[in-house]
From TrEMBL:
Subunit structure: Monomer.
Listed name of the protein: Peroxisomal bifunctional enzyme
Gene: EHHADH
Main location: other
The family this protein is said to belong to: In the C-terminal section; belongs to the 3-hydroxyacyl-CoA dehydrogenase family. Belongs to the enoyl-CoA hydratase/isomerase family.
Name of one Pfam family that matches: 3HCDH_N
Keyword Ribosomal protein belongs to the record: no
Length: 729
């Protein structure tokens, strides 16, 4: 045990504030001090190298502790430095870690918070690792489109074997301290004061040889199985990674860990250089920072609508109206965050079903505690005292207006009233209340307890305080909140319109649903539009089209040309399926057929026949459509709609659109999001020319008409960053 009273502070802060050097008798403690996450920017690297050298020079020093100041052990390289001059400035991270590994005096990494990426690689290069019970470690570089390029792909498998290393590195998962201990990744879990414990531990190992503590000198325990492990991983990754190059490149680097350490390190370096210079790494890093940047929201409508000045109301209790799929998912999210919930459902059977689902979904451990926060009711008066209500009833304006009228009369005057509408006019809903300033859209995505996106919609009268509250609620329940303006479909579903419309037009011309889905899935989406439609339920879109008067339950509205609605081209194939009761997975048939109890989408000859007859009836000639055309025809109109949205100020920045798509619609992260992809991967000029060319072929597909903003940007050579505040990225 170290007696704190005997600890003496020597000259500190010698190496700027970024790696503080303190001595405790024979122990040097190097504390990285680079808030918020102690990333390894240039000055930290220099500070560590200087500190290590100083410790080696001082004969009174016999051991070295490295730790993080503030909230965490270093959480990795400074990603903002990537691609800048300071990233390449020596010492680089590899030299810091080499100085640690080869130190003749034992080096102990003492971990709290999150030791991630380069931070965990530093710990692995150390001779001993301690962790507090709440610490987590991991190598999440794959999410940034790179690999653990400071020896992580070589040292980790030497401890846990190739199989576990592949699993950890290709998923980027964070491991809790206890699991890290059982995997041999930390040597000891310490309770109490980490600094004191680390110094005490360092003293206890002074004088012991460090050679056999160097992970770099060990061999991989399952080396003989590397071939079969890599083959198995390849199969999983091809299925899971869909177009992302980093996961398989990580595997290639890990494969080299069975070679001598220096050879493996060289291979890791080459593969890192390959990834660092790929187009996917900057796209994923953009996605990482955008996820955080959307927290700094504002809206051009009103300068008070700004994260800096708007203060949220305190929300302790929330009413949820409707115990359907969405209401139940929202309730689970709120309960999991420790909020009190009053769930109202007027249909007793539905309410009972909802309660059962909530009970089943909440984790065993905390279920009873969480359930104690839940009140269920069929009576609106039970909502009289809640701070906020989220309405999640059926998507009908008439019904929503009825609900909001009731809520306005029953809830306390300061309560916020939110609608989970997926695209109806928030202003019309607000207009039936006497508090339009407290009405806001909070669009959750199914399953609402899992999907991270929360699209918050600012109505004409929504106050800054109300928006701040909705954004804050998102953070409280672990969602990524994006602020958008009010228009039909808001950002996400509005852009989805052209995508699904064009996908259905492709069926008219010769593609089958599975051809379209395959092309979109190869692009990187987890599901193509038809599989997604079957999963969500085809009746959702159908009801929406009925509500808009585009179709009826019996077919086209009277006196309507079959393939046109209100002057626009219209394909009724989806309506035809719904009229047959084919509503998707839930009815065992939609665009595909499903065996009882299975979710596997099977091509259905009945649908293929229906499409064939439809083509014949309307004079469409079947042709072969390439995957490239499918991707362009579906995604470019979606992107084009994004430009309209920016032009109208519905989204303040292109990154708000990208984050919406990354977190709500499964847009592949390695492409950065639709707007990033358009600008940085394809190029705006190419998008514009493709739209023009398709529009010339299909003049009545109005979504193919390029947005004036896109045209203007191409003509002037302006960038998306220049439109909003994402220039920082
Ligand atoms: C040419 C090739 C030659 C080869 C030579 C190779 C040499 C070796 C080089 C590199 C190898 C190592 C690479 C890496 O380490 S990459 C980074 C790996 N680490 C991560 O991915 C961690 C990312 N961060 C997180 O997961 C989280 O931030 C967190 C868990 C650490 C903390 O979460 P939370 O408390 O929720 O905070 P925030 O996420 O909100 O973050 C706060 C703040 O900090 C910024 N930030 C976080 N991590 C980094 C980072 N690694 N670099 C820069 N900035 C970071 C984040 O953006 C937030 O900023 P704010 O929005 O402005 O507040």
């Amino acid at each position: 045990m170290v007696n704190t009273m005997t600890l003496t502070w020597e000259a500190t802060r010698e190496f700027a504030v970024m790696a503080e050097y303190s001595t405790y008798g024979s122990v040097v403690v190097l504390q990285v001090n680079n808030p918020p996450v102690n990333s390894f920017s240039y000055h930290v690297r220099q500070g560590l190298v200087d500190g290590l050298e100083k410790a080696q020079r001082d004969p009174a020093i016999r051991s070295i502790v490295i730790m993080g100041k503030g909230r965490t052990f270093p959480a990795g390289a400074d990603v903002r430095e990537f691609g800048t001059a300071s990233a390449g400035m020596m010492p680089d991270l590899l030299s810091v870690l080499a100085a640690v590994d080869t130190s003749p005096k034992p080096v102990v990494s003492a971990i709290h918070g999150t030791a991630l990426g380069g931070g965990f690689e530093l710990a692995l290069a150390s001779h001993y690792r301690l962790a507090v019970p709440s610490a987590r470690v991991g190598l999440p570089e794959v999410h940034l489109g790179i690999l653990p390029g400071a020896g992580g792909t070589q040292r980790l498998p030497r401890v846990v074997g190739v199989k576990t290393a592949i699993q950890m590195i290709t998923t980027g998962q964070h491991i809790k301290a206890q699991q890290a201990l059982s995997l041999g990744l930390v040597d000891k879990i310490v309770q109490g004061d980490l600094l004191k414990e680390a110094v005490s531990f360092a003293r206890s190992i002074e004088g012991r040889p460090v050679e056999d503590r160097r992970i770099s000198q060990k061999t991989v325990p399952d080396a003989e199985k590397v071939g079969e492990v890599v083959d198995a991983a390849r199969k999983t990754i091809i299925r899971r990674a869909r177009g992302a190059i980093a996961p398989m490149t990580c595997v290639q680097a890990i494969q080299a860990s069975v070679l001598p350490f220096d050879v493996g390190m060289q291979r890791e370096r080459e593969l890192m250089a390959f990834l660092m210079t790929s187009w996917q790494a900057p796209a994923q890093q953009y996605a990482f920072f955008s996820e955080r940047e959307v927290r700094r929201w504002s809206h051009p409508r009103d300068k008070r609508v700004n994260f800096k000045t708007a203060k949220p109301r305190v929300i302790k209790s929330v009413g949820v109206v409707g115990a359907g799929t969405m209401g139940v998912g929202i309730t689970i999210s709120l309960l999991q965050a420790g909020l009190k919930v009053v769930l109202l459902e007027v249909n007793k059977k539905q309410l009972d079903r909802g309660i059962t689902t909530i009970q089943k979904t909440l984790s065993q451990k905390s279920a009873s505690q969480r359930m104690s926060l839940l009140t269920t009711t069929m009576d609106y008066s039970a909502l009289s005292d809640v701070d906020m209500v989220i309405e999640a009833v059926f998507e009908s304006m008439r019904l929503k207006k009825e609900v909001f009228k009731k809520l306005d009369s029953i809830t306390k005057p300061q309560a916020i009233l939110a609608s989970n509408t997926s695209g109806l006019d928030i202003d019309k809903i607000a207009a039936v209340t006497k508090r339009p300033d407290k009405v806001v859209g909070t669009h959750f995505f199914a399953p609402a307890n899992i999907m991270r996106l929360l699209e918050n919609i600012l109505g004409k009268h929504t106050s800054a305080e109300t928006i701040a509250t909705a954004m804050q609620l998102g953070t409280t329940i672990g969602k990524v909140g994006v602020l958008v303006g009010n228009c039909p479909g808001f950002v996400g579903n509005r852009m989805l319109g052209p995508y699904v419309t064009e996908a259905v037009f492709l069926l008219e011309e010769g593609a089958d649903p599975q051809d379209v889905d395959k092309a979109i899935e190869e692009f990187g989406f987890a599901m193509g539009p038809f599989r997604m439609g079957d999963l969500s339920g085809l009746d959702i879109g159908w009801r929406g089209r009925i509500e808009k008067g585009l179709t009826t339950e019996q077919g086209p509205p009277p006196a309507t040309p079959p393939l046109y609605r209100r002057g626009n081209r219209y394909c009724p194939l989806a309506d035809m399926l719904c009229m047959q009761g084919r509503l998707g997975q839930k009815t065992g048939a939609g665009w595909y057929r499903y065996e009882p109890g299975s979710r596997a989408a099977l091509p259905d000859p009945v649908v293929q026949q229906m499409i064939r007859e439809y083509r014949q009836e309307h004079g469409f000639k079947k042709r072969t459509i390439s995957s490239q055309e499918i991707v362009e025809r579906c995604l470019y109109p979606l992107i084009n709609e994004g430009f309209h949205i920016l032009d109208e100020g519905i989204a303040a920045r292109s990154m708000d659109i990208d984050v919406t798509y990354l977190f709500g619609y499964g847009w592949p992260r390695h492409t950065g999001g639709p707007m990033y992809y358009a600008e940085k991967v394809v190029g705006l000029e190419k998008i514009l020319r493709s739209l023009e060319s398709y529009q010339a072929q299909y003049p009545d597909h109005h979504y193919l008409q390029p947005s004036p903003l896109l045209r203007d940007m191409v003509a002037k050579g302006t960038s998306l960053a220049a439109l909003g505040t994402d220039s920082k990225l």
